[in-house]
Amino acid sequence: MKTIIWLAHKYGAVKLRSRSVRLTWEPGEGCALIDTTTYQTDTMQKRGFIVLQDGSDDTFILTELGRVKATAMWFEPPRLQECRRKSGLFWISDEQMQWLKPWLPTRFHHLRNDDRKLLSGIVHALRENLSFRQVSGEKYGAELALHGRWAQWCISGTMDAVLGHLFERDGENIRLVVTTEMLLRHRKGSGAIARGELPTFSPLPDLEAA
């Protein structure tokens, strides 16, 4: 709640973009765009810290009590940087698709959505610790398609092979796009590791480097 109050004070308003079990946010135009639970916003409304902006059903501003609470905060809440989205959207490049080609399925019994589109959405969710619902849309595809591709490829072993061979350039070095740390903090990723569906990935830090 302190983080939301801080954001509302700094940006003038906070816009609830979608429901989530985890607070994440990024700067928007005239507001901070946040994903959070209805419990948090409902509780803050009941306590009189925030109210809906006139004419809006998803943008909140601080009440007088909320502004008093905000000005009493001498230090930035520690979670502010922890839950901020940093890398923006992710899209697999042509070069990366060539790297992955040997490990992508080539035979299937039905037409499916574009591999690059869905895999880009899955990787974006893993890197930013977002749900598939939060990243679903025109760019990455429907939530159900993302869930389906993740489950199918985890069971078949394709996801382990793909993530284990998906690299990005960092100057003269090459590193994994998705690390063990990212997978372990993500609900889907940690579940797949626990079930043994991502054997390439281990909590050992020396396996995270390419």
Quick overview of this protein structure:
With 210 residues, the chain is of the alpha+beta class. Helices cover 43% and strands 14% of the residues.
User: Which overall shape is indicated by the principal axes computed on the Cα atoms?
Assistant: elongated
| Sheet with most strands | 5 strands, mixed
Number of E-state strands: 7
Helix-strand pattern, N to C? HEEEHEEHHHHHHHEEHH
Supply the helix-strand structural class. Answer: alpha+beta
In which range does the helix fraction lie?
A: 40-55%
Distance between the termini: 39 Å
Write up this protein.
With 210 residues, this protein is of the alpha+beta class. It has eleven helices and seven strands. It has helices spanning 2-11, 38-46, 64-71, 79-82, 94-100, 115-128, 132-135, 143-156, 158-164, 180-185, 187-194, and strands spanning 14-19, 24-27, 32-36, 50-52, 59-62, 167-170, 173-176. The strands form two sheets. Strands 2-3-1-5-4 form a five-stranded mixed beta sheet. Strand 6 (167-170) and strand 7 form a beta hairpin. Helix 1 (2-11) packs across helix 3 and helix 6 crosses helix 8 (143-156). Residues 206-210 have low confidence and may be disordered.
Quickly list its features:
210 residues; alpha+beta; elongated; disordered C terminus
Helices and strands in order, then pairings?
Elements: H1 2-11, E1 14-19, E2 24-27, E3 32-36, H2 38-46, E4 50-52, E5 59-62, H3 64-71, H4 79-82, H5 94-100, H6 115-128, H7 132-135, H8 143-156, H9 158-164, E6 167-170, E7 173-176, H10 180-185, H11 187-194
Parallel strand pairs: 1-3
Antiparallel strand pairs: 1-5, 2-3, 4-5, 6-7
